[in-house]
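Quick question, first post here. What does this chain look like in 3D?
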Amino acid sequence: MDSLIQLASDPTAWAALATLVVMEIVLGIDNLIFISILTNKLPEEHQTKARRIGIGLALVLRLGLLGSVAYIVQLTAPVFEMFGKGFSWRDLILIAGGLFLLWKATQEIHHSVDPEPEDKTGGKMQIGFAAAIGQILVLDLVFSIDSIITAVGMTEHVPIMVIAVLAAVTVMLLAADPLSRFIAANPTVVMLALGFLIMIGMTLIAEGFGAHVPKGYIYTAMAFSAGVETLNIIVRRRRRAKGIAGQNDHA
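> Answer (accepted):
Ran it through. Tokens below.
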């Protein structure tokens, strides 16, 4: 208890907490985009439940990994060497997660561009509830390990990490439904989000092979693309509104 009070009175600890909260929220965006796209493939009555379970699993995994932080740090130690490059368990997990994201995003893009016949899928690719939760769990694990290793590199105080994780997951929980509805209502946003997932997947693979990609570049590109698409949506809505107004005038 005394250590917590001492930590709360340390300005450095507050600065670390603020930085880590922002970092965890930013890292959670990747996870949230994947969850939103995947759960939108479920029947409408199951979507909210699946999103909450997926985000809840992300919280459980992160807190569980924090409880074994000493072991998580060891995941960065090389376990074998290939072509003069040492690979750790973290590297292998990032590479596997990146490949999974590439596969999933490519599959979704293929279905959006060349959907299956209406009589087979009703015009919309759907997945089972258990399959959705399983895929979310896989990516939750990848993003959770990356998140915790990032947190360990920024502070040595576990309470600060726990608060940052709780704050990030709370933001994810609040943003999940609005983001999913926005993606579902704007088909072009789905393609943009899938493009983000491909970029994130390539980044994970690159980091797994030891090529560090500054996250600022990635999120700046994502923010710019999202801004352009927002302008496109505004323009389309105005054109649609003018079209409706013109039809009413002629009537």
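The chain is about 80% helix and 5% strand.
Residues 215-250 form the longest helix (36 residues).
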